[in-house]
Design goal:
single chain; methyltransferase; 193 residues; alpha/beta; 5 helices
Length: 193
């Protein structure tokens, strides 16, 4: 079990899959969300949590004021755990679980113009995810119109992994390390039309 750190559901526990995921530690989640509160991107945000696992990051965002959260997870057991967490917290109207690969979901989102843009995107892939797969997903996220102008993209990787190869549509602005975990922050590149 893991715990929602703060907000409406602060202190509530959520289930985590028995295997196959690497939940973000409470310490790292608290640091990420402290930064996001400082950046003022949570209240009323539309959030996309890719490689969601139990949904801890997206559920934390919902607890702290996000208006809409989409959790994308390809592992059936993990997606089922995320769905149960959504129901147990009473967030069915706010949080939606999509059981699909992140690569397919991101490609389809990039190809579907007209949807309301996301304000915040979390990517917490398995540490062994190939760099070219992460680059492809980031490339889809950089599609014009998919992210709001003030959006923040948060990528969690191992400190031993290289810096993500950011597409031209995303500009990194910070990196923080917490033990084995590196958290990278980026925003839509303001220099592009």
């Amino acid at each position: 079990m893991t715990r929602i750190v703060a907000g409406t559901f602060g202190g509530r526990t959520i289930a985590v899959p028995a295997q196959g995921t690497r939940p973000t530690s409470e310490r790292v989640r608290e640091a990420i969300f402290s930064r996001l509160v400082h950046l003022d991107v949570l209240d009323g945000a539309r959030v996309l949590d890719l490689y969601a696992g139990s949904g801890a990051l997206g559920l934390e965002a919902a607890s702290r004021g996000a208006a809409e959260v989409v959790l994308v997870e390809s592992a059936r057991k993990a997606a089922d755990v995320a769905r149960r967490n959504v129901v147990s917290l009473g967030l069915r109207d706010v949080v939606h679980v999509v059981a699909d690969t992140v690569e397919r979901f991101a490609a389809q989102a990039a190809a579907a113009p007209g949807a309301r843009p996301y304000d915040l995107v979390f990517l917490d892939p398995p540490y062994d995810l190939a760099d070219d797969v992460l680059v492809a997903v980031l490339g889809h996220l950089a599609t014009p119109g998919l992210l709001d102008d003030g959006a923040v993209v948060v990528v969690e990787r191992s400190t031993r992994s290289p810096e993500p190869a950011w597409p031209s549509g995303l500009a990194p602005f910070s990196r923080k390390d917490y033990g084995e975990t590196a958290v990278h922050y980026a925003e839509p590149n303001p220099r592009l039309p």
